[in-house]
Amino acid sequence: MKGKPLASIVSVGLSKFGKLEGKYSREIFVEAAREAFGSCSNLDPKRDVKALFVGQMSESFEHQGHVAPSLSDWMGLLPIPATRIEAACASSGAALRCAIFAIMSGIYDVVAVGGVEKMTHRATSDVTEYLAMASDFPMEQWHGITFPAIFGLMATAHMHKYGTTEEQMAMVAVKNHHHGCLNPKAQIQSEITVKQVMESRPVAWPLKLFDCSLISDGASCLVVTRPDTARRFTDTPVDIVGTGQASETIGLYERDDMTFMQVARSAAKQAYEMSGRTPRGIDVAEVHDCFTIAEIIAYEDLGFCAPGEGGKLIEEEETQLGGRIPVNTSGGLKSKGHPVGATGTAQACEIYLQLTGQAGRRQVEDACTGLTHNIGGSGATGVVHIYQRRD
Amino acid sequence: MKGKPLASIVSVGLSKFGKLEGKYSREIFVEAAREAFGSCSNLDPKRDVKALFVGQMSESFEHQGHVAPSLSDWMGLLPIPATRIEAACASSGAALRCAIFAIMSGIYDVVAVGGVEKMTHRATSDVTEYLAMASDFPMEQWHGITFPAIFGLMATAHMHKYGTTEEQMAMVAVKNHHHGCLNPKAQIQSEITVKQVMESRPVAWPLKLFDCSLISDGASCLVVTRPDTARRFTDTPVDIVGTGQASETIGLYERDDMTFMQVARSAAKQAYEMSGRTPRGIDVAEVHDCFTIAEIIAYEDLGFCAPGEGGKLIEEEETQLGGRIPVNTSGGLKSKGHPVGATGTAQACEIYLQLTGQAGRRQVEDACTGLTHNIGGSGATGVVHIYQRRD
Hints:
The structure is a homodimer.
Chain A lengths: L6 E8 L10 H14 L6 H4 L3 E4 L11 H8 L7 E5 L4 H14 L5 E8 L6 H9 L14 H16 L3 H15 L13 H6 L2 E3 L2 E2 L9 E8 L12 E10 L14 H14 L8 E3 L5 H10 L8 H6 L16 H4 L7 H13 L13 E8 L4 E9 L2
Parallel strand pairs in A: 2-3, 2-4, 9-10
Antiparallel strand pairs in A: 1-7, 1-8, 4-7, 5-6, 8-11, 10-11
């Protein structure tokens, strides 16, 4: 099936990202779904949308499991099947794969897929604990290590092996804040400087506050169809031409090398092979910058540069708007925000907007091929998708 | 695709069900996977199994999210993609659907699908709370209603509308305990009497202790393949010929009628239509008897009898081994046990054993067609599958 479209995105929606006070997940998700449905004039959701797949990371934030049917309810789509997929911060990336499988199965012609998380109403210590549940309980959580610390270890290893600097990491934050200023949906819309990042409060050395992504409420939603029926819903479908997912030990301590993520390499290899694309052919990418070091590692794992050269790539402004391969034009997790369950399909939203020329002030000129890279935990799950503009 | 096999089960495995002290989910799941892999001589898991889908209800029991990659790790199957699906107690029923979609997509030829839950190490009050997270937070949990109470309301409504009796509900427990005595894997293997059920401690009137299913640790695992390659792995594949899933309001209070589950009716309709089968053509069924009343309602929703006649059906011993349509020959959730995330695919395990003549002392003679009915929460999710013996 090399290069053949697997499924097509015909419409996308994003809620606001940020602190959405007094709203439950289901209300936030409806905001995203409404935008997706509303921007697709030929779509009658009640008639057309036959199933929902939704990524949500944690039942703990709202003390609410079994979230999927309530979303189907609040969208007015009962009794369609609604299924929650959980893969930590890669939950909606994994949900998108289930949606693709469902479309390719021939059972459904049109499905909705998205993600949602409501996080900001909890104390930061609670948020840190709930997120840490995606690390290994007996060997990591139990000993008190949190995700900033885990990525701090990865950063240290990368600095040691390759000479990557704190300044280079800071440049990732600066770039993504700059991009976020061009995205009206971004949670933070203000420029920062390398100096500000360097002087921000230490969280887990070498990571400082501005190296960390945000705590956010938000939701994302895509309408996905069979490639051959996509034109019924829009003149500008975006085809998904490659999908990959891989697993790794949940505990960081069990891996031989902390300077890369095997899951990203493996998922990317699957997606590149399936799509017949190569890193050189990617025009725009959204990668999982949960911490600045993660974006640098992503460059390397995705083949945008050689291992160890991620720091140089950001330094040379190659991944900035106008560079060779703009990354995180949305602002990324760092500036757009990171409502964890929503992130995977939010990345797909941005790629859809880019490939259909709807990205406004952050538009990458003539973007034809896009990629998303969505990571769960410290890299126990990795999901990569490749997208192609329909000509 | 009416009547066409969607995917085939070539092998099944179940861990012990019960109190499995000192074991994490991943260790329990490996026990089930090992049995599934070990009983399929032509299967080389490392070579053949290309993805894992796993149902788990709650991250709270073990303070562990992101469980799927750790299962793939402990099964020795890294780096295959591993995805957790959550739909409350219907988690692995929903996971089975994702596995079917993945097979039908043509991307994978062989996948593993299962479920696991570790519950018994927590205090009963914790278990009750974590399970209650599958009900509506603002309108149910917050007001203190728990699942026994929710099903107590349904039982009361059924008694009021149809004259169903406490004795009839007790008969479900008696039957399922009897069947459980014939299943070496069942958590409880002792006969009980209607009198014992009636005299057991009230939990939420009219439900008494022996009307309630068990708190269990356990796991289940299936190996699922494309129908056309199934014979490569076994002489006795079982084809999945119908699948259905539906959603309903998460809160019971929003439904007009508490005496049936719309999701079960809707999911069953989908599965019957897809398979070209009818209720009359089902030889053996595993239904979601989380409480005895739920089994009576299931008879009606699945069309084994008319609405309101479920009490009569159990009273006339039609659903007992030797009856017209034996239900829960495994012992059901009531006697085999109910490790919530494992239940959906554990039901499929029993049907596989029945349709391949491997059910030992509880074998239904000449069983050709089977059905599973898996419910999440109070019926916000329903999943139904229909299975056919290969001749």
